[in-house]
Amino acid sequence: MDALILFRSDMQTYLRAYTFLSQIFDYGNTDFEKRSIFYRALVRLLKFGREREGVDLSEVKLTHHSVRNRGQQNLRLSDEDAPKLDPLTDAGSGQVHEKEKARLSEIIARVNDLFEGELTDNDKLLYVDRVIKEKLLESEILVKQASSNTKEQFAGSPDLVPELVSAAMDALDAHTAMSTQALESKSVQREMVNILLTYSRLYEDLRERASAV
Q: Mean pLDDT across the stretch 75-91?
């Protein structure tokens, strides 16, 4: 039995060596490969009853365990005083990129004079730069126009305001106060179009959507 176990171990050693070395250079002799194929198949058959599928632990029970207090230990990283790590500071203080921050600030400054009522700056920003803009990005008419015209030509499109009104109507339920003013005021509509084109990248995003189709 010991001889058989040694024989199988030698074959496994050969297989590991051949698998590794064959990736480095060409043996130039197919006998080595044939032998490795034969050994790999033979090793699977050489089972001598010592292998077990698993150990049955169903009857094993933990009756007790021991916890010992060995006192406090001072872990030294070196013989000298170990350098101290700086504490975590300014958590959550990540900054928006300056260009993006300036763009959002400009939009807020422009929309502050558009809408009245108890509305936060974020309400106004999200309404114009997110809700209305996303609705306009769904317009197939504007997507086609942005893809085939310059920004200056696109700004003169007669479909911009009607599509803006349609977008405001779609958002009416969620943003009643601002949508009502956008629907009733021509000056608000014109200024929203100006904001969307100048600061909200409406034209550029429409062209990107057109190129992705």
A: 57
